[in-house]
Amino acid sequence: MRSLLPGSDTAHVVDAKQLPPAPDGRQYRYEVVVQLDDAVDSAPSDDDVREIADAVLEAIAEIDDPDWPGADELYIQIYGPDRELDAGACGTAHWVAGDYESIETRSYFFGGVGA
Fold it and tell me: Nearest Cα to 44, choosing from 6, 11, 15?
């Protein structure tokens, strides 16, 4: 089941998983996969990746569960509309303890045509 990110009609979280603890002690590490909808016809810019990553962080901050420890590290991968045909993520963000370590965009093919 796909869940709409807050404030977005073009990006949905399609998968999330917890990663093993890091050697430096960070316990609450997650990988989140976001997929763009069919209406998106070009690769995201750095600003687009940051906006989507911010929406993921906002959604996580709104989790209302007393047993939820929060997250201290996130890897966010953004895929195009047809993930099975994608050569890889078209955007990534790495967030650690309140700051972005990196935000990247990559060349991406929409519908088999270079963007």
Answer: 11
Sign of CA dihedral 107, 35, 84, 42: negative
The two tokens of residue 113 are 């045509």
pLDDT single digits (tens) 31-88: 988 888 776 767 778 888 888 888 888 888 788 888 877 788 999 988 877 766 556 6
Neighbours of 29 (CB within 10 A): 17
Distances (CA, A) of 80 to 17, 26, 51, 114: 20, 30, 16, 12
Residue type, 87: A
User: Is 39 within 8 Å of 83 (Cβ atoms)?
Assistant: no
Q: Which helix (H) or strand (E) holds 104?
A: strand 99-105
Angle at 74 between CA 73 and CA 75, to 5 degrees: 135
Helices (H), the chain: 46-61
Tokens 């316990």 correspond to 27
